[in-house]
């Protein structure tokens, strides 16, 4: 008789050599507390999925290490290794939007209660992935990071204007609802951290007139009040904090 171990062997995944799994039976998260990174930790907290978090910094020695590139060849956080994949075998994923969809489908939550609701959620998730994330991120780069040294004002002005346009789209959508796609969903988990990031990370809330978008600011207050959101922002723990 063959006895199957209840502990998956994750040693074939190079990522575990640099960031070993203390509990190989639970989902392994490789991330950092950035607007993109906390999407996944917040989702895991909201869904109650057991996981173990590993802090992967944006330094080349982390995200460009052979071990991390074996999990995400695009050298970006977050990424996951789930020993309990859909076919009973481990699965790896990168790209935060793909991970959110996977977690929602795995748990049967936060993706709408019908097919039409599901696509409403996915529509706004893609709005974040294709618009809010790239545009807010570029604004942060040209305002606070290395791009701020560039004297040409046009890049900065372009991303300020685009951020304001996107905030207006959200403000209009939120005029008659608490959550972006109806019920609370992974679309909110994708969008909320980027709104918070305008103030917390990039320090551009005043620059884009965030306070003028009343529905957005009320929405962000509701989002930030959720205990799972508060816990998710603290994952993975920063040893220097």
UniProtKB/TrEMBL annotation:
Name by which UniProt lists this protein: Glutathione S-transferase N-terminal domain-containing protein
Pfam families listed in its UniProt record: GST_C_2 (PF13410), GST_N_2 (PF13409)
Protein's organism: Meridianimarinicoccus marinus
Domain (GST C-terminal) ranges: 114-241
Classification via PROSITE patterns: GST_CTER, GST_NTER
Ranges of residues in domain GST N-terminal: 24-111
Lineage: Bacteria, Pseudomonadati, Pseudomonadota, Alphaproteobacteria, Rhodobacterales
């Amino acid at each position: 008789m063959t006895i199957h171990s209840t502990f998956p062997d994750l040693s074939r995944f190079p990522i575990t050599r640099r960031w070993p799994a203390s509990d190989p039976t639970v989902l392994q998260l490789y991330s950092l507390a950035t607007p993109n990174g906390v999407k996944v930790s917040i989702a895991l907290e909201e869904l109650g999925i057991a996981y173990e978090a590993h802090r992967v910094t944006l330094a080349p020695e982390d995200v460009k290490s052979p071990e991390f590139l074996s999990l995400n060849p695009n050298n970006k956080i977050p990424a996951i290794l789930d020993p309990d994949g859909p076919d009973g075998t481990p699965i790896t994923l990168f790209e935060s939007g793909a991970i959110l969809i996977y977690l929602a489908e795995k748990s049967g939550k936060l993706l709408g209660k019908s097919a039409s609701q599901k696509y409403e959620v996915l529509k706004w998730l893609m709005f974040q992935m294709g618009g809010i994330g790239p545009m807010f991120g570029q604004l942060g780069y040209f305002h606070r990071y290395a791009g701020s040294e560039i004297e040409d004002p046009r890049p900065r002005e372009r991303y300020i204007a685009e951020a304001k346009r996107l905030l207006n789209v959200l403000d209009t959508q939120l005029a008659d609802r608490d959550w972006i796609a109806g019920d609370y969903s992974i679309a909110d988990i994708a969008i909320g951290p980027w709104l918070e990031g305008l103030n917390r990370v990039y320090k551009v809330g005043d620059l884009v007139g965030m306070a003028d978008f009343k529905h957005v600011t009320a929405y962000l207050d509701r989002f930030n009040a959720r205990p799972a959101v508060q816990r998710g922002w603290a994952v993975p723990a920063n040893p220097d904090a």
